[in-house]
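Q: What would this complex look like in 3D?
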Amino acid sequence: MKILIKNGQVIDPSQDLNTVTDLYIEDEKIVAIGQSPSDFQADNIVDATGLWVLPGLIDLSVSLREPGYTQKGTIASETYAAAAAGITTLVCPPDTSPIVDTPAVAALIQDKAFEAGRTNVLPIGALTQGLEGKKLSNMVALTEAGCIAVSNHRHPLANTKILSRALEYAATHDLLVIFHADEHHLSNEGCAHEGLISTMHGLKGIPETAETIALARDLILIQKTGVKAHFARISCAKSVEMIADAKAQGLDVTADVALHNLLLTDDVLSSFDGHYHVLPPLRSDEDRLTLIEGIKSGVISAICSDHQPHEKMAKVAPFAATEPGMANMEVLLPLSMLLVDEGDIKLSTLLNCLTQGPANCLGIDAGTLKVGSYADLVLFNSTLKWTWSEETKRTKGTNSPWLNEAFSGKTITTYLAGKQVFPFV
Amino acid sequence: MVRSEPRALQLNDQGQLKHFLTLDGLNKAILTDILDKADSFLSMGEQSVKKVPLLRGKTVVNLFFENSTRTRTTFELAAKRLSADVINLNIETSATSKGESLMDTLQNLEAMQSDMFIVRHCESGAAHFIAEHCTPNVAVINAGDGQHSHPTQAMLDMLTIRRSKGQFEGLKVAIVGDILHSRVARSQIHALNTLGVDEVRLIGPKTLVPSFFKEMGAKVFYELEQGLKDVDVIIMLRLQKERMQGALLPSESEFYRLYGLTESSLAWAKADAIVMHPGPINRGVEISSEVADGKHSVILNQVTNGIAVRMAVLSIAMSGQLQNKEKNETGANT
Amino acid sequence: MNLDLERTLEKMSQELVAYCAHKNIENPIVVGIHSGGVWVAERLLASVNTSEPLATLDISFYRDDFTRAGLHPKVKQTLLPSTENRHIILVDDVLMSGRTIRAAMNEIFDFGRPSSISLAILYDLDKSELPIKADIVGEVIHLDSKQKIKLSGPEPLAVSLIQT
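A: Here is my prediction, written as structure tokens for the whole assembly.
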């Protein structure tokens, strides 16, 4: 199947490309940009005039909720929502039920994703059995079954000795470990950033030290074991500083941030609205601005949606009693464009954080339009005004503060390995 | 998606209270009005006939998810003196302990067609949640939500101060003890600042008085002597035994030695200082018996004032709801 | 219209004494409704044969317009002894719709079951909305829609007619 994407504005941070040109796809791959390959007879010509042609987005954390929590979401619904958002590769966390601590569960998820056929799904395997933090899981088997990395998610390890050994083991086999820096005795039961707002509103606070103390310990262990490491969902200004220092000293770590931590602060908690209950919590404006600086300086190289869909009732309770998590994935790109509009981040930097950046964090060959790569790409109308409404959304989750809001910028078409996956044909 | 904050949700279009959720965001005029009305109810309490028909025909439901016989009884008394019908629901002993969600409990209560809910709950923001989700025209009165707010307690404390001292200007007020976990203290800080006292002081160890409170408009002291110097009003807070468990304090005896109000520590304050306590008092933990029962103590007045303040709040909120309802109905008809 | 206040009060006092004699009312409680009714009651009390001191009533808590107008800001004191088996002379300055008197009677009944209640009104505006009539009337006054009558006091006690 030969496809010509004609006259679109091709933007690819990995090649420093931003120009109106043509893009040629043959079977599953990109075969040329600009100049047509000889004998290229397109079966399908797509007029991309006025549209951006981007590498398909890569989202480092999307909870598909299957197996185990299908009232909140399914692989079918959430991968459909991902395709609608222009996401061609997503990474799902191990906290399903059963947990992804056996190859069977990892295989199940990938099989169902393949069946749905909307996006590439890379599961993360559990670092310890049951995520309980006591016994190591069969990390190598998990990786062979398709897990892109291992992680204990936000669950604590029983003690530092076990953490240290888990990292040594992962390092032995060159596995990527994803860290959620959280000193659980300090954050335990907390639901909000420890500060003036949480104090005034009587909400149990999570101090920044819960993140920075764990981060400090993790950085030392990474240094010691040499394990490949990525820090997920950094939320504190101090964490950015600490990771920057570690990188400056030659430590090869990467970090991502959840989009909502770049757009919101703990000010929104005054309404006691459970939709703003997330872990790690929304922090102060100083933290938010420093995270943005971290993106500009490259300390943070990826932005993810941290998509955690919930059924309605999960958020209908007093704040601390609600289940944490937001479901913003479906509007990942137009929402992150707000950062460009407000002049905080350059467009190329932002797009990098959604494509090449996450690909590098995972060590995969994706998030690029380089000739020879899989044709995972998205056509995006950057000026189209639309409302993301409850009636037309594809995610099963109702828990986004931006649901029913108007946006500027919409995904028009998404291709996965040259096949159109959104809108579904 | 815009949700309303408690401070906005509790006022109707004319700026009158239709719920009583928090003192945060209420201006001096509203707080003073509550105190003035409470004063009228106080003088009424001294007469033989203690009942007035203001809430006659209205059903007031005490929704106490946290146990508290004292507070519940004063609210019940206040509602009955306004001629309301009162129903007591101790939810902690019924459905929710079996896991029924707050939302389900609320929906089951709809059939009762109440006019007012008085709510005490262990979660901060619970009263706000109920005000947002219950049927329209039901007034919600916060009897204490988690660590957030206990507005009627703070108002009865303000009434006690005003009746003892005459006015708020020029006063130095100290709140001593476990500020961190105290919803009463948070409400008191709002009220004292709004009503215009000179200084609000918070006294306790660092573990119980984090510095964030300074940003709420208070001075923080870690030593009792410094904190009490020249103070006109001392409010002692109850210390709960659980605080020892969380490594916030070593022992009651050490707390008493450093922060307990005794006749000698009381001497650091002004000679005519008054001593208050929201109750129940822990003798020998935060306050000595001599002081609790002594001439500076107005603790018993607080109890009487509590009924009057609650009568004022209940009538004001009910009136605010009724006026809101009438305005909406006439608006709909025009 | 006759707005000679002193003369009207004198007339009322005489009528009240005659009324009490006629009805065999002994040792009544004279109750003035705040504020104007209290001032008028003070004047009438002087002529009435009773050992009971002046009683006062604030009807704020008994008004029927709680829904519309809310609670009044400054509530004055109700000083009323037990009304059980007593004769009450209820006094107010102006009778308009009659709702104030209804509220006052409700309040009086909360203090006990009186033997009788008689009503003395300084100015009857003849605008009642309820079946309430005064037993002693100072003057009947008809105002047009732009006029209001106002009593000021307690010293000096004076009445004025206001054009709005």
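A: To summarize the key features: The CA atoms of residues 85 and 115 of chain C lie 5 Å apart. Chain C has one domain: 5-163.
Q: Very helpful, thank you.
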